[in-house]
Amino acid sequence: MCHSDLLSSFDVLRHRVWTDCRFHLGCWQHPGRLSVTAFGFWWDLGNGLLGLVPGLIYPLIQDYKAGKSILLAELFVVLGSAVGMGVAALSEMWVSGADMNTVIFANFLPAFIPDVVNGLVLVPLLMIAYAAVTQRSGRS
Q: For the whole model, what pTM was predicted?
C-alpha cells in the first residue's frame, strides 16, 4: 500500500462530518423516515431534568460537609435520574413505538443505573471538595 492510497486524517474527518450532516439533514427534512429529531429532543429534555431536579436542592443545603446535606443531595440525584431518564425512556413509546418491556430494559435501566452510580460516587466527593475550597478561601 503506497502513501497516496491512504487518506489523511483530515480527509477522513471531513468525510465523517459530511456524512453525519447529510444524515441529520435528511432526517430533519423527512422526520417520518427516522425519528432522530424527536429522539434527540426527548433525551435532551431528560438530561436537562436529570440536572434540574438535583439542582432544586441547592437552597436547602447550608453545610456541604454535613451528613444530612450529603444524604439529601444523594436522594435528589436518584430522584433526578429517575425523572429525567424516565421521561426520556417513556418517550420511546410514542417516538419509536416501543413496548413497555423495551422501554424499561433497553432504554430506562441502561441510562438510569450508570447515572445513579456516577451521582452517588461523585456528589459526596464534590460537595466535600467544594466545602474545603470555600473554607480555605475564607468564603465559608
A: 0.70
